[in-house]
Amino acid sequence: MKRRLTIAIPGGERSKAYPIELLRRAGLTIPDLSGSRSLKHDLEQVTLLEVKDADVPVYVDIGVADCGIVGKDWIMESGRDVYEPLDLGGPAYRLSLIRLRGATGRIERVASKYARIARGVIQSKGMAADVLPLNGKLELAVTVGLVDAILDVVQTGRTLEDNGLEETEVLHKLSMRLIVNRAALKLKVPTIRELIHRLEP
Ligand code: PRP
């Protein structure tokens, strides 16, 4: 590749595995990073930054990273104006409204890791529910009656099953995406085009 790119990916053993696999398939040489706690990797062809999923769009929009690989859920939640040229596939998952199995009463409070998306959904449905931002393990919030519903991602459905919950509505189908900083797109056209081409499923 002609110009060196900085790419932000979700950090942590589990999260970084798929982005790294994609980049390797695209022909980049990436050594085994599994034992490393370093968050910045200056590699042969690219620099990799390991950040929290939610922060990948921030690094890319501000331009510290030229590109990022992250789930569509976090791109939507960030509200950042990044170019999103490629659906990278990967494990299919979805963003759903979830309740106790069989629940029918009014929804007055919804918990989510995706407060911004949740507020948008509630507004578009004309519901009068409050959004309670939580950081994870949302299923418990419904089970113990903290909220009447959650807005969360579902992959296999096992977490719902094991906690007596069900999806009442699938709101978005999600997957991993490539995002690109808009200025980098102009300044590094050939390099970014080449990366997009190599990453194409
Ligand atoms: C996510 C999500 C669900 C679970 C869904 O949680 O929030 O809890 O995965 O996966 P499943 O349908 O395959 O069971 P994550 O593991 O990211 O942890 P968190 O709840 O702490 O955010």
Biggest sheet details: 9 strands, mixed
Helical amount: 25-40%
Number of E-state strands: 9
Enumerate the spans where pLDDT stays under 50 for 5 or more consecutive residues: none
Quickly give the structural class: alpha/beta
Question: What is the total domain count?
Answer: 2
In which order are the strands of the major sheet placed? 2-3-1-4-9-5-8-6-7
Distinct small molecules bound, one entry per kind: 1-O-pyrophosphono-5-O-phosphono-alpha-D-ribofuranose
User: What is the 3D form?
Assistant: elongated
Verbal overview:
The chain is of the alpha/beta class and 201 residues long. The chain folds into two domains: 5-91 and 174-199, D-Maltodextrin-Binding Protein, domain 2 (3-Layer(aba) Sandwich); 93-173, 3-Layer(aba) Sandwich (D-Maltodextrin-Binding Protein, domain 2). Helices cover 32% and strands 34% of the residues. It contains eight helices and nine strands. It has helices at residues 13-25, 56-62, 72-78, 115-124, 138-143, 158-162, 182-187, 189-199, and strands at residues 5-10, 40-42, 46-51, 67-71, 83-100, 109-112, 130-133, 149-154, 165-180. Strands 2-3-1-4-9-5-8-6-7 form a nine-stranded mixed sheet, with helices on both faces. A hairpin with a 3-residue loop joins strand 2 (40-42) and strand 3. The mean pLDDT is 95. Residues 136-139, 152-159 line the site of 1-O-pyrophosphono-5-O-phosphono-alpha-D-ribofuranose. The site of 1-O-pyrophosphono-5-O-phosphono-alpha-D-ribofuranose has 12 residues, from helix 5, strand 8 and helix 6.
